[in-house]
Amino acid sequence: MTVRSWLASSMVRHFPRTPALEPRALALDAALNERFSFQVALRSDSQDPQRVQVKVSGPAGWSIRVRRVGYVPMPHHNTPIEQDDVDVEGRGHIPGFVPDPLFDEDMILLPSAETHAFWISARPGADATPGQSAINITVSAEGADETAHTAHVTLYDVHIAERTGFPITHWFYVDALIDWYKTDLFDDRFWELVAAYVRDIVQHGQDTLYVPVFTPPLDGIKRPNQLLQIERTGSDTYTFDWRDVKRYVDLAKRCGITHFEWCHFFTQWGARHAIRIYE
């Protein structure tokens, strides 16, 4: 029973039908404070599924994380493709399963005649010095000998400066978290969950967060997820309770967010279509 494994850069995607490659040396370049990634790909020649574990070790003080690459279905290419279009990625694999989610797992029950991968994220320690370093990978499979791989890392005597004057935002919809985790809107459980997600986007370079003061009006009628509490006090008078808005902003700041994007007052269908504001 044989499991074939090889190292690959983070710039390629592995599909279930990706053929096995011959192992070859992987060389990586990084700054002293740079987070970088690469992959360990696996394919089994066995008739039966095999349990395979990937173990990774690096220099003392380095942060190294191993995650299994999961697949999601993709029914078609998003744009028309020409016969000679060399820029189309996934040709011959789509429709089919494509790699997308990363799971905090270092083990897989590897199916027969399928390719799967593990994503390795690494960051040098605070006391790292310029020069050559190595990250060692061991692939252990049931009924097979262990296979060892080495990723050779060259650290350069440079530090990547923090980005300035260029805020980065991706719309962050809390209604999706409320729906998935079935919280009672902004209950105590919600506040615990949302903090982990905000920390994650900060780790990926985002510094600007969308604040649902009102329910975001961009995708039709959504589940109400309005932070601002409004109470009618007269025929045309209201009071506004900003405590949850402040709690959201303060939490985001503690997680590393420095800029905020505020809710639109009109929908994408124009000023004729005002947003829904709930009391």
Description:
This protein is mainly beta. It is built from 3 helices and 16 strands. Helices cover 13% and strands 38% of the residues. It has helices at 174-181, 188-203, 243-254, and strands spanning 3-9, 26-31, 36-44, 50-57, 63-74, 96-103, 107-110, 115-123, 131-141, 147-156, 208-211, 229-232, 238-241, 259-262, 266-267, 270-274. Strands 1-3-8-5-6 form a 5-stranded antiparallel beta sheet, with no helix packed on it. The model has no long low-confidence stretch (mean pLDDT 92).
- The number of distinct helices, counting runs of at least 4 residues, comes to 3
Provide the low-confidence segments as ranges.
none
Mean pLDDT: 92
Q: Whole-number radius of gyration?
A: 24 Å
Order of helix and strand elements from N to C terminus: EEEEEEEEEEHHEEEHEEE
Structure described in brief:
With about 280 residues, the protein is mainly beta.
Characteristic key phrases:
279 residues; mainly beta; five-stranded antiparallel β-sheet; five-stranded mixed β-sheet
Indicate the topology.
Layout: E1 3-9, E2 26-31, E3 36-44, E4 50-57, E5 63-74, E6 96-103, E7 107-110, E8 115-123, E9 131-141, E10 147-156, H1 174-181, H2 188-203, E11 208-211, E12 229-232, E13 238-241, H3 243-254, E14 259-262, E15 266-267, E16 270-274
